[in-house]
Amino acid sequence: MTENHNSHHSPYYYAYLNLRSNGLAMFGVVIIIAAVLITVLGYLIIPDNTPQTNQGSPQIKKQLPFFTVDILNVHKNHEVEEAGFLEALYQGQESEYRIVPLQDYRIEGDEIVITPYGDSMQESRFSLVNVIAPVFVGDSDKLPGESNVDYSSDPIRYVNIDNEIKTISRSELISTIEDELIESRTYWLGTDSSGRDMLSRLLYGTRISLGIGFLAVLISLTLGVFLGAIAGYFGGKIDSFIVWMFSVIWSIPGIMLVIAISMGLQNKGVMVAFLAVGLTMWVEVARVVRGQFKVLKEKQFVEAAQAFGYKNRRIIFKHILPNLVGSLVVLATSNFAAAIILEAGLSFLGLSVQPPTPSWGIMISEGFDSIGTPNSWHLIVLPGIAISLLVLAFNLLGNGLRDALDPKSLLK
């Protein structure tokens, strides 16, 4: 069935067609959609699903991409509360195990003896039962002697964390360790200076950058549209005062203003980051909105609305503001890219997200401290590429939207 060429479509339909034909803009859209999916799916797709992807080991720090190592998972000697689905999805699930990278291992009697990764001259020993389960700590009369693990018989008996006697056969115990708790793990993008998975931390950093960028743009749009609309529509002293505010804020370098707001709030973290970034980005929005309102309020459709006796609020929000949607969307994409860079800069300076939360700016800062040491290039290059790619995506989308919404292109 062919489309009727005489059928009427809104300008936004033709803008969509123009955007879809722009290859670079669609590349940006694909990157942004991928980033949004990473943010929404959270720990479902992050290899290290512990809170803030903070599981690591100093023995494997600063390993290059595609690094593979054998890992012994040793059970923590305490109970780990299982998180609900939503909590695990967005906050992570604490692991029941701590990881011990190893070069080799052997079973000797009641212990597993390992040669730690990177140190062939040293050996570490772990009680077999302590590897697979938490053992009761303290005095217990459940078993004879001072130990809460009895290896003298088969099956082996031990007192668990709830002070209850459990049994397990020696063959099952060794099989559990060798088949389930010793694994070969590949770090596809290497490890950071604390031995944590770089891929997991980069994926988590996407959530930080997108979250702060979205909230910062939302704040800047809300404040900028409100003040710009008031200044442009009413004019007079209100306009003069708001323009004076523009001039004062624009006279201060953006990064200095963000730093001042961050330090003035006397707090550090995600909330401060998006507040500081959002409160410094509204000026450009307000300037554009003010200029558009000054032009549009002189149009005949506004005069007609005033003649019908409509209130100023209705004229502003129902008649003038919808005509600015295209400009605001383009401006929002540009501000989104700027917000990502500002947040990374604040994190790099230690004024935004704080360790161990993985922000791309923090990752670059940690890599910066390792410059000149072996195997350190990826600590800066990988988060740098992530920042550049996401910023490029928003800029490409912004350029594509600007061209797609150009009235000249809509008339073609």
Automatic annotation (TrEMBL):
Major subcellular site: membrane
Keywords: Cell membrane, Membrane, Transmembrane, Transmembrane helix, Transport
SUPFAM superfamilies, per the entry: MetI-like
Transmembrane segments: 24-46, 208-234, 241-263, 320-342, 377-398
Keyword Transmembrane annotated: yes
Localization (cell): Cell membrane
Topological type in the membrane: Multi-pass membrane protein
Occurrences of domain ABC transmembrane type-1 (ranges): 206-398
Origin superkingdom: Bacteria
Record protein name field: ABC transporter permease
Organism listed in the record: Mangrovivirga halotolerans
